[in-house]
TrEMBL record:
Annotated organism of origin: Salarias fasciatus
Region spans: Disordered: 1-35, 354-434, 461-510
Identification of the protein by name: CCHC-type domain-containing protein
Biological processes per GO annotation: RNA 3'-end processing
GO terms, molecular function: nucleic acid binding; RNA uridylyltransferase activity; zinc ion binding
InterPro entries named among the record's database cross-references: MTPAP-like_central, NT_sf, PAP_assoc, TUT4/7_NTP_transf, Znf_CCHC, Znf_CCHC_sf
Composition-biased stretches (Pro residues): 358-370
Cofactor(s) needed: Mg(2+); Mn(2+)
Length: 933
């Protein structure tokens, strides 16, 4: 007994109801009888017909190859040495007619090749580039054939996969129909779009291939099991597929043990294994349906025995499909939503129920698993709910609704006439005397409302009866007339003696002898809409183009022209940031003393060849009074750390530092990209870290100090930017935002791009035609560092821009919110010319800031899209706040212009990627160094 509506809703939402329903449905699927001969013949026919009607034919494949060759000729004429290669389903012959044509660009001199591809002649129209996709591509359409081409680069492994599947489909004729039918099923239920949480077509093909290898008897061999020596079997994960050799063999290379061991395995059996196509289709659905151990192991076409997910360190949830050519890649990783996975399981269950039933329903009338028939007596306002249970199909029953009866369904359109042609096979509902049929919004619940004081009488009682129905609704004809009695199931139902009904019954018996299946969207989806999941934020309900976490540039309202008086207020704010937080000479000297004492202790207790030096904010001219001590340690006799075990040295150094009385909170972090030892100085309270051979960072520090010495406005703007980032909580890279070094690079880049520029590009100033070389860790760390000669070399530059620091600060906020596009451009202080994110191949990042020396280091790579939105919101609010003239009372300027609630709209910085213990990113709570300590 439930006392109120709230408790009823709580009861309904309990998970046990869903689990009980799943158990019941699983029991129903297990109780399905083995397929009969007519059923297998019908399944053979529908799978073959689906592959024939929706898959590409040999002529279609030839047309696609010809169009690809034509595109290759066009591109090679413009870019000599650049060749195109067909891959994907068009190369394997496993494509649907609506599939696009995938082409790989080989031998491309640079990423700009795709930009050239977008400039195609009229023969290839509708060219559009998508350089910000995970795989940048250019899409165009072949005018004569209408084929859609997708041109991308870096698909060498995908080309090997195409060779693999093409060789298999040429030797096993049943593979292509099964894959095409499976792809068509996935398209009907909308599970073939990876960008919306579905599965790629390559993944579907691997799932079918894995099934053909694992069934008994197998249709295709498993490549490695018979070739792997027993002692090496645990290392099977390290096998790598190299290529499909010209003979029908697979060539392998064992990379788990030196020297590499070449292997080869047959692609198919010498003699084909007999198995009807319809039976294979039914077995495929049975293997993939819920209840199968899909979440326990990895779907792998290399091994016969189950490959546990622990062997690959993959989580045990949803699907895991291994790419045989890239063993670390989960092809099904796009299925990253539990809702979509449950929808996939539900549709597989429905497909198995439909194709496994010996008498399927016709298109347009899928049988729901539980049908409820409600009859209401209008005179007494009572409800009699009668779900009808059937173990098989009931034959020769007729429902005749008379006397202005209405068949009502939720969400219906009114006054639809129901004709015999629209009813299901062997099922006829005779409607007379102004009967009305209202269309169904849901296919799960059917309500039949009976009026005119009808009584539904059962042989056992007059109470409500619940009879569940697991079979189909075929051969039903139930006659309900006014005041008629409905007998029990096994009681023989009398048929009207009219000649018309006798003819219909005979026709129904003839049709019942034939079994027919169709790939019908209404039947396979059950009327349930697919769940759409965004590939960016992993939330459902929208796609990537509409993702709220993906920053979209919006039109900002214009700002009023600032007056001279207001610019003087901004000058004072920027100057106050510097005066309040800059390092005084005394504080700088104290830091040097801490360094000297620490070096003496390490040389005495750890290694007498150790040398320490400061870098970072302590030396680059932009340090705060509470900035960390960034220390680099080197060892005499070692120019680099190539022959050193940095992890062991850091751990040993941490043990020694724990003996230092002036230090506390010693914490080695060896899992970081640069292993460090963190500590805290007791007397000053300053935190610090020691790293090994971080020599490139020392050159960065020197270059930033040189820029700071060029013009006093550089330092003032740098301090203002760091205060702004600190107040908005966007200045800590360890918490998923930007580092203070990245913010300084933002300031320098703006000053270089200003018209006229405030500072030069030091890496572009040199004598001669070529830039000098200063190799450090494999990079050129040259920059012009002679300040005295710089003044004489570039006299026009010095003094050409006379803007105040307040005007420059407002210009910086407007530059990064109005002009600069973080998605398209890269912040690079090494060059005056603009660099695109496509040119750097950083198109999948939201913010791109290039290190001036390590050109592969993107300082914005760790910034998520959610954090990017937060940073851009802070910049936009800062633009509005600093760009709207306001004169706060003297002494309150800092509080007014750097109010964090105004700059961030009162929101906190995103911390969903941070550890719950230390608040840092890069590890989970269970691996937190503080927790281990």
């Amino acid at each position: 007994h439930v006392e109120n509506v709230q408790l009823a809703h709580k009861h309904i939402k309990e998970k046990r109801h869903k689990k009980n329903l799943e158990k019941q449905e699983e029991a129903e699927l297990r109780s399905l009888a083995p397929p009969t001969g007519p059923q297998l013949s019908a399944l053979d026919a529908v799978v073959a017909a689906t592959a024939r009607h929706h898959g590409v034919s040999r002529d279609d494949v030839a047309a696609r190859r010809a169009a690809a060759h034509r595109l290759d000729d066009v591109i090679s004429a413009r870019l000599p040495g650049c060749r195109l290669r067909l891959y994907g389903s068009s190369a394997t012959g496993l494509a649907l007619k609506s599939s696009d044509v995938n082409v790989d660009v080989g031998g491309a001199p640079s990423p700009l090749t795709l930009a050239v591809v977008s400039l195609l002649p009229a023969e290839f129209c509708d060219a559009a580039s998508d350089f910000h996709a995970k795989v940048p591509a250019v899409r165009c359409r072949h005018a004569s054939s209408g084929l859609l081409f997708t041109v991308s680069s870096g698909n060498s492994l995908a080309c090997l996969s195409s060779d693999h599947l093409a060789a298999l489909s040429a030797r096993e004729p049943r593979l292509a129909p099964l894959v095409l039918a499976f792809r068509h099923w996935a398209r009907l239920v909308h599970l073939d779009v990876p960008g919306e949480g579905g599965l790629p077509s390559y993944c579907l093909a691997l799932m079918v291939l894995h099934f053909l290898q694992q069934r008994e008897p197998p249709l295709l061999p498993v490549y490695l099991d018979d070739k792997v020596p027993s002692p090496r079997r645990p290392a099977a994960v390290h096998f790598l597929v190299l290529n499909v050799v010209p003979a029908p063999f697979f060539l392998y290379l064992l990379t788990g043990c030196p020297p590499p061991l070449p292997l080869q395995a047959p692609l198919c059996w010498p003699r084909p294994v007999p198995a009807p196509l319809g039976l294979l289709w039914l077995e495929l659905l049975a293997v993939l349906r819920p209840g199968a151990p899909l979440e326990d192991s990895v779907i792998s076409v290399r091994l016969k025995e189950p490959l546990p997910r622990e062997a690959k360190n993959w989580p045990r949830r949803r699907l895991a499909v291994e790419d045989p050519f890239s063993l670390k890649r989960n092809v099904a990783r796009s299925l990253n939503s539990q809702m979509v996975f449950e929808y996939l399981q539900d549709r597989l269950r429905a497909a198995y129920r439909y194709f496994g039933h010996p008498s399927p329903p016709p298109p347009g009338a899928p049988p729901p698993p539980n049908q409820e028939v409600e009859s209401r007596e209008s005179s007494e306002n009572q409800e009699v709910r009668k779900p009808v249970r059937k173990s098989g199909s009931l034959e020769n029953q007729e429902v005749t609704l008379t006397e202005k009866q209405e068949v009502r369904k939720s969400g219906s359109s009114k006054n639809q006439e129901v004709r015999k042609a629209g009813l299901s096979t062997n099922q006829e509902v005779t409607l007379t005397d102004n009967q009305e049929m209202k269309s169904a919004e849901s296919l799960e619940n059917h309500e039949v409302t009976l009026t005119e004081n009808q009584e539904v009488i059962n042989a056992e009682s007059l109470q409500k009866q619940e009879v569940r129905k697991s079979g189909s609704l075929e051969n039903q004809e139930v006659t309900l007339t006014e005041n008629q009695e409905v007998s029990q199931e096994n009681e023989e139902t009398r048929l009207p003696e009219s000649r018309e009904n006798q003819e219909v019954s005979s026709e129904n018996q003839e049709v019942n002898q034939e079994v027919q299946y169709v790939f019908d969207k209404l039947i396979l989806t059950g009327g349930k809409p697919p769940t759409v999941v965004c590939s960016v934020c992993k939330r459902d309900g929208h796609v990537r183009a509409d993702c709220p976490d993906d920053f979209k540039r919006a039109e900002l309202p214009p700002l009023p022209e600032p007056s001279e008086a207001f610019l003087r207020v901004l000058d004072g704010v920027c100057t106050a940031c510097y005066l309040e937080l800059c390092l005084s000479p005394l504080e700088q000297q104290r830091r040097e003393q801490i360094l000297s004492g620490l070096e003496r202790f390490i040389r005495k207790e750890f290694d007498d060849k150790a040398r320490l030096c400061l870098f970072g904010s302590s030396k680059n001219g932009f340090g705060f009074r509470d900035s960390d001590l960034d220390i680099c340690m080197t060892l005499e006799g070692h120019r680099t750390a190539e022959k050193l075990n940095c992890k062991e040295i850091i751990e040993a150094l941490a043990k020694v530092l724990k003996k230092h009385a002036g230090l506390r909170n010693i914490l080695p972090i060896t899992t970081a990209k640069v292993p460090i030892v963190k500590f805290e100085h007791r007397q000053s309270g300053l935190e610090g870290d020691i790293s090994l051979y971080n020599t490139l960072a020392q050159h960065n520090t020197r270059m930033l100090a040189t820029y700071a010495a060029l013009d006093p406005r550089v330092q003032l703007l740098g301090y203002t930017m760091k205060v702004f980032a600190k107040r908005c909580d966007i200045g800590d890279a360890s918490r998923g935002s930007l580092s203070s070094y990245a913010h300084i690079l933002l300031v320098l880049y703006f000053l270089q791009q200003r018209r006229p520029p405030v500072i030069p590009v030091l890496q572009e100033i040199y004598d001669g035609e070529a830039a000098p070389r200063r190799p450090v860790d494999g990079w050129n760390a040259f920059f012009y560092d002679d300040l005295q000669r710089l003044v004489t070399r570039r006299p026009p530059l010095r003094g050409s821009n006379r803007e105040s620091v307040g005007a420059l600060w407002l210009g910086l906020l407007r530059f990064y919110t109005e002009e600069f596009d973080f998605k398209e451009e890269v912040v690079s202080v090494r060059s005056r010319r603009k660099i695109s994110s496509f040119q750097k191949e950083w198109t999948n990042k939201s913010i791109n800031i290039e290190d001036p020396f390590d050109l592969n280091h993107n300082l914005g790579a760790g910034v998520s899209r959610k954090m990017t939105n937060f940073i851009m919101k802070a910049l936009i609010n800062g633009r509005r706040l600093f760009g709207t003239p306001h004169f706060p009372p003297p002494g309150t300027e800092m509080d007014y212009f750097f109010d964090s609630r105004t700059l961030t709209d009162g929101e906190l910085a995103p911390n969903d990627r941070c550890c719950r213990v230390c608040g840092k990113i890069g590890h989970y709570m269970k691996d937190c160094p503080r927790r281990r300590r």
